[in-house]
TrEMBL record:
PANTHER family per the UniProt record, alphabetical: FLAVIN REDUCTASE (NADPH)
InterPro entries: NAD(P)-bd_dom (IPR016040), NAD(P)-bd_dom_sf (IPR036291), Polyketide_Oxido-like (IPR051606)
Pfam families: NAD_binding_10 (PF13460)
CDD domains (alphabetical): BVR-B_like_SDR_a
Listed name of the protein: SDR family oxidoreductase
Positions of the NAD(P)-binding domain: 7-200
Source organism of the structure: Actinomadura vinacea
Length: 212
């Protein structure tokens, strides 16, 4: 697969790039600062320095690729538009270049549904959404809404709290529902899930929740 990763130097993006390369995929990493990408990955991936919020700037990195992963994420808990602005640019560039497949990393806290236990559904997630992580979640919500409104072959992946710990090597998933008791996932396992989603056409047009 010819894969473009936006947010390639982020905590999740680095794992996606590494695992995709290890699996034999051809990877283009879109970065602001190439020095932030580990040296062994710079040697193996095609590194494009560009503003991921500018559709024209990222078109060359997306053209003739099979899929794009947006691993962009807000920094901190304050207001942010990076996820929404990023997916707008990515979807515009994808449409312009004829690329169909786009996968967006979002967050499980955005939706409380029947997949959650009662405490998580009626207490934890509303608290996160309304008070603690309101800014980042609103950004992700806007990103999801934009991508859903396109005619691209999209999938939204919603992980819970991300851990910078070694991979467990397994994860749970649910389609269009939250994962019951899914509170955390190592970033490395999330990267595995993202690559699995890309390989599974049945996930197109769906939200995939993942957790360990």
């Amino acid at each position: 697969m010819r894969l473009t990763v936006c947010g390639a130097t982020g905590g999740t993006g680095v794992h996606v790039v590494r695992q995709a390369l290890d699996a034999g995929h051809e990877v283009t990493a879109v970065v602001r600062d190439p020095a932030r990408l580990p040296g062994d990955l710079r040697d193996r991936a095609t590194v494009v320095t560009a503003d991921v919020l500018d559709p024209a700037a990222i078109e060359p990195a997306i053209k003739e690729r099979d899929a794009v992963v947006s691993a962009l994420g807000p920094r901190g808990r304050g207001p942010s538009t990076v996820c929404a602005d990023g997916i707008r640019a990515i979807s515009t560039a994808a449409a312009s270049t004829g690329v169909r497949r786009v996968v967006l990393v979002s967050a499980s806290g955005l939706a409380a549904d029947a997949g959650d236990g009662p405490f998580t559904r009626y207490v934890v997630k509303p608290l996160l959404l309304e008070r603690i992580l309101h800014g980042p979640f609103e950004d992700m919500r806007a990103a999801e809404a934009h991508l859903r409104g396109t005619d691209l072959d999209w999938t939204i992946v919603r992980p819970p709290q991300l851990l910078d710990k070694p991979a467990k090597g397994t994860y749970r998933k649910a389609v269009d529902l939250a994962v019951r008791g899914g509170l955390r996932i190592p970033r490395a396992d999330l990267a595995t899930a993202l690559l699995d989603v890309l390989a599974d056409g049945r996930t197109v047009g769906h939200v995939i929740s993942v957790a360990t």
